[in-house]
Amino acid sequence: MTDELIFPAAFEWGCATAAFQIEGGAREGGKLPSIWDDFCAQPGRIKDASDGLVACDHYHRYPEDVALMASLGFRHYRFSIAWTRVMDAQGRPNPAGLDFYRRLLDELHRHGITPNATLFHWDLPSHLEGGWLNRDTAHRFADYAALIARELGDRLPRVATLNEPWCSAFMGHDRGIFPPGLQDREAALVAAHHLMLAHGLGVQAWRSVRSDTALGIVLNPDLCDPASAVPADVAAARMGEIERNDVFLNPLFGREWPAEMLTQIGTRSHERRGEDLPICAQPLDFIGLNYYTRSVARAPSTASEVRRGYALVPPSGADLPLTDIGWEIYPTGLSRLVQNLSRQWPLPPIWITENGAADNTGVSEGDCPDVMRTNYLQVHLAELADLIRAGHDIRGYYVWSLLDNFEWAEGYSQRFGIVHVDYATQTRTPKHSARWMQAMMQRSAGAAPQL
């Protein structure tokens, strides 16, 4: 099957992780607490009552992990920098934290792996009062971006400001599943605006320090299908896409939010200022898209659903393929999503910055036959190859994730890694999906056309 997957010679193959999910070392080197440390300490917030204090112990085991990704054939690595590790509460650099990332970058360089860094992957410093509901947090993010540009920028050819701001805004402030655990629709929209303001201010701050970095943002836009052809369900699906897509993509290209969202922000509309939109609309060198599955929506019925304008329904059908977290395996959605977004917005070059599956297959006698994940990757990469052949400017793919890790509110109950992690011993065991990716990348490179 790997012979069918042909990609351009310059196509970037990578694996992805995030700081809070793998690093551990939570109380070492002057690291400060994040809102996720606080959230994990609240009873009932995390499915298995776990935390990120140790995680995959990447803080101590990064040489092993870098050597492992190199042995599997990856030449690009997407990771996030922990804001709480590199900057103290007064906004000053933390030398010990910066030194950790310098050592990581040194190790990547030794193995011929190009770094692709994300500045914010949800682990907001706890001391930032008000979090993303406070406009000042966007300015503190700009200070942080400038610090990384000064201290590490010469080692980082590509940098994303934010990862999936929808999750920070809506999972944290509307659904209550992520920190700060609120269920306040207006607050979610204020947070979304401040996140996009932070993106724009961060890009400005970085470019004031250095101009040779490719800068972008990573989003998780949605393909939302209606549960039926009934007009109310069709309208609900559109509202789902407006929340996930338009709220974040419109500001990137200097466009106002749709009227439906302006209505929902209600009494807090004054927190969106007229001068903000040009700041959000900084020129982008790339955009990262994360895709796992689609959504299905119906017309709202409960009070909270009416406030949102839609309700999501779970996948249905006896033979519907699902991952172990219960997400539908829907590879066609990747093509439909890229096509939809490309019609609506003038996207810069695209990287698929996350794609993968929860497959909780265990290790037996040193072997981990994660067949479902391997099939998931194959069918999604086939869609990706078709998109590129059709002319879409997609330049790289990062599998999520290199390692099993802390899966946020699910704790360690869901495994997304192509490498199994025994959390008791920290033993790493490459799964069948890792070997499949290795063979696929080798064969693809050998047959790659020069485009």
Properties at a glance:
451 residues, alpha/beta, TIM Barrel, three-stranded mixed sheet, 15 helices, 13 strands
Summarize the structure in words.
With 451 residues, the chain is an alpha/beta fold. The protein has a single domain (2-446), classed as Glycosidases (TIM Barrel). 40% of the residues lie in helices and 14% in strands. It has 15 helices and 13 strands. The strands form three sheets. Strands 1-2-3-4-5-7-10-11 form an eight-stranded parallel beta barrel, surrounded by four helices. Helix 8 (185-209) packs parallel to helix 9, helix 13 runs parallel beside helix 14 (371-389) and helix 14 (371-389) packs parallel to helix 15. The model has no long low-confidence stretch (mean pLDDT 97).
